[in-house]
Amino acid sequence: LPDRREFAVSLSPYRRRLRVAACADATLLAAAASGLVTLAVRFAGTRGAIVMAGVGAFLITALIAGYTWWRRWTLGRVCATIEARSANTDNILVTAEQVARSTGRLPHPIVQAELFGAAFRRLQETPPGIVQPLVRPLAVAAGAFASVVALAIAVQPPGRGATSRAEVRSTDASTLRAGDLRVVVMPPEYAHMQAVEALNPPSVSVLEGSRIHIETPRTSAQVALVDTRDVRTPFTAAPTAMTIELVATSSQPLIIRFADANATSDRFLHVRVEADRRPSVRIARPAQDLAFPAPAGHVPIEIEAQDDVGLVFMALIYTVVSGSGEALRFQEGEWPIEVARQGAGDWKARARLPLDALKLQDGDTVVYRAIARDAKPGADPSASESFLIEIGRLAGVAATGFALPEDRDRQGLSQQMLIIKTERLHAERATLPGASFAEQARLLAVEQRMVRAEFVFMTGGEVADEIEEAAGTHELAEGRLENPAQVDLLTAIREMSRAEARLNDADTARALTFERAALAALERAFDRRRYLLRTLPERTRIDPTRRLTGDLATARSSSLSTNDAPADPFVSRARDLLRELFAARSGPGNLPLLAARMAALDPSSDELQSAAVSLAAAADPSAREAAEKQAERAIMQSILARLTPGYSMRLRSDSIAGRVADELRRTRGGIK
Amino acid sequence: VIARAVLRLAAIAFAAAGMVDPAITRDLAVEQPLTVVAIDEQSLTTARNFQQRVRGAYATVVRRYEAATRAAACPADGGCVLVSDGALPERLTAGATVIGALRVPVNDQSVIAAIDLSSRVHLNASSILRVQLQRDANRVDVFDEGVLVGSASPAQSGSVEVSWMPLAVGPRKLRVVAGEDAADVGVRVDEERSAVLFYEPETSWAGTFVRRALLEDGRFDLRARAELASSIAITRGGRAQLDGSSVADVDVIVATSPHLLTRAQVDLLERFVTRRGGSVVLLPDQRPDGPIMRLWPRVVQQYREKEPQSIRPLRAAALLSFDEGPGISVLQRSRQGAVIVSSAIGRGRVIVSGALDAWRYRDASRGFEAYWTALMWEAAMAAGRPLRVTTRALAGRGEEVPIAVETRAMHDLPADISAEGTFTCERERGVLRLWPDGGPGSFKAVLRHSAAGRCRIAVSVAGTAAMTELLVADDVRSIRLDHSRLETAIAAHGGIVTDVAHEDELLSRIHDRLPPRREATMTWPMRSPLWIVPFVACLVCEWWLRRRGSLR
Asked: What is the ipTM of this complex?
């Protein structure tokens, strides 16, 4: 029979499992603590500090909890737990453990043998896996640990502020070394962002309107800020540092020049300003025009708006248009919406527009759109696309500009009527004498010309002939005439010209094709859901009274000047910079100055800006060499993009070829 | 007695024949002389092996090319085979028929096989430099004075086109670097505008869009005239008439609607092309007829496609295709044939576009504008100025640089026209000795300068002056093994270039070019000294017989 030593050994697997489970619990607790700490310090530090705090909290909590809970699993507690988690509750294990642990008077050996034997049988009946399953605690612990790792990777300080490719560390003026630059970016107040600081950054990315505070230790005698126009602004002397403050309005490279040092100690700072973009707002539902037979029911509307900084206002605006012609009436209003803020810059809203509450009548139209505004002072709100709700019969009304409902009907009808007449004539072609058929076709051509003339003058002029119109087709296709209604009108006119020509030739079948194409274009041009602006600006309006009134005798030749466009100054500046960059390779070179000039070449070029920052940030010789090569290539590519492109082509310049060819042609009997 | 008589007669016969000295004509096989020239010491073994293969059929000689003597590689007579690793002698032959070249394998680690670029480029335009590679290279860079001016990655092995930008005006040394290999080429960068006369007998879309492209390009000094009616025209720039005084100082004449050109205008264009050596660009919008047909290449086909056809970078639906006859260089080709061609006539060229409606399909990438401006620039470069001084842009120190001077005028030049020339180099200046070369107004000279730096060469012919510059540099790295140059030079002599493994082709070519031939050869048999032996024998025997018969 087992003795008490063997009994203690047999409890070891149970204790090991319970301790492992305790460690898993400690991991879970540590993960929770780490998450809380990370969230707590997220608003008060840089990313590195946040990660350090989170990891530290995790490790400390895990060590403390794990050690405590590890020690807590004594054999007595293990036995009690086994008893508690097994089916039998006779405390045989607890008793055996107490006897085994006792140092005083022990029971009779026979009793001990019976006791430990019973305890062994109990242990055999209750294997360690039943007392403490490990799969679940370990899985939970692994998940908790993964959460901590994910949090450490994903955590970012809130808001958008300065970014730096150099080492960023929190500091104050007293900790700065000679030549150090501390840059503090203070975003505009309306953005509600934290100020961010960086030490010796080659570039900072800031929101438009941010204030940039730059300071350097007072050990330097004179420090000045030099911009791209070579304007020097000296730093102001404060008790412990030299400082300067500027407001970021546009991206620009800056040089911080230390007057008492050589040129190589210049510091480059590229300020990249990100504009506060206007909010984007759209109507997500129904996102189409609607027509209702009667002013009853509701129209559910969903609106979405986004902004890069934050939204402050959103509304649904509607305009009820009633009446027609000169008696149009407009009634504007705002309908309440239910806003759901999913973030400072991401709002969604719902509304139900009740048609009966708007007191609409048959023929009325409701034009509605959403507007949204961000917090930028003085910024205009952004508006979504407008949609229509038409009530009752066809409403030929548009909200802005002008509309021509009667004319539209008349002209559409005229063209439609012309098609019907042509179809009838075409059907009678077999029965009519040829001369009579041709005569009637020519009459229809006259009608087609009259209809066409209406639209020609509406577009502001005369179309000379079909060939010239065809020559202009590519301009239409290229979108040079951006007004799509005007494009459709011109298309209709062109099709009418072709139809007229076929009718004059008594070719009614082909004339019908063009007439229908003209009608389709007219319907597109006068689509009632299209907002028609004025098709002809005042300054280009044709005065028909002056037609054919000129005097040919006054026609004169004219002489135009040649277009002597000056050479692109960018190219010459970039060429100079390339040479200086090459010269800087062989000597110390003022890389910050070159970087600043490079960044100033073209502030809109990402390649140049990126290469300039790399050039300024290059610390060791290998990085410097790589940055110089990158800069060279960026400048070269930007010059090539601006020069007249080359084309691989060679023409022979020797005169022998021509003479030999002449002789060969002569012997073969001439050129042709 | 009889024997003595016979011997005596024989001796007399020998003596008489010797005095008569008869000649005999025979048809004999003649060995053709063949010289095998080894370009260097390494090629000598291959040359000797090749000599063994042709020995017997030809009078073969192996010799080694000596560059220092400046003598031609091949002699004056017979046939000649060059054995080379790719290098080309300065002078190939002094008169011998160049049958071919045998290329020996070399352990050549060079990457760059050839470089092709325009000899003159404009400062305000990028240019294309084409590099032939014989090994793979990740990147090809172009440097000007150490400054990176162009770079490209080969899309496919074999060749790469590098777009590069001129850095400064004057003769420039461009260093092309591919992998571990580098080679230098010279180029002349100019900022002068080329004079272009743009004449439109009537307004046309093709002319309008090409004219606009030229107007926006700073490389051209454009003078344009568009006839609107019989007495109404719109002109731009200086003298823009299509007459003798206006075209005297232009490099390129562009004419639209060529079917409307008069006979006198076509005569003027012809003189401009054939005598002045200018470039004429014709932009028709229909198949022409009339006087212009004198300068017009033969049209093979006129057709219209339903969809515009790509003749990159242009597109067109209405097309003319031309016959690729003598003097025709095809610039752009469609599926059906040559669409844009340059026809060499006299000293100049006429460039004709058969892409009649390419103006309709201009795209946003500005390929239409880039193509026509590049073509006009090349046409202007090919035409050159009326007094053209041609020389290399780059030379090594001490290298001989040939200079060609050519005067091209619309009128005939006097035969005794003279020229003066000077050169101004870094540490030396002097008179350039100009020798007449060919016709009136053509001269040649040679300049050799030993100091690195720029040399300015000024030439004046009959009151017209011209100037060019040459860069003499220390470390000019040239492409030694330019296989394309070797093949071109050998092909120009009607020869072929083969590898050692395919030398049977060369042997076959030798048999074709130098067939074994028989010659009628005169021989004088009595002139042989051996006849003295029978003559003396006859006399001795006759004497011995007489002594035996106790006769005196």
From this structure: 0.75
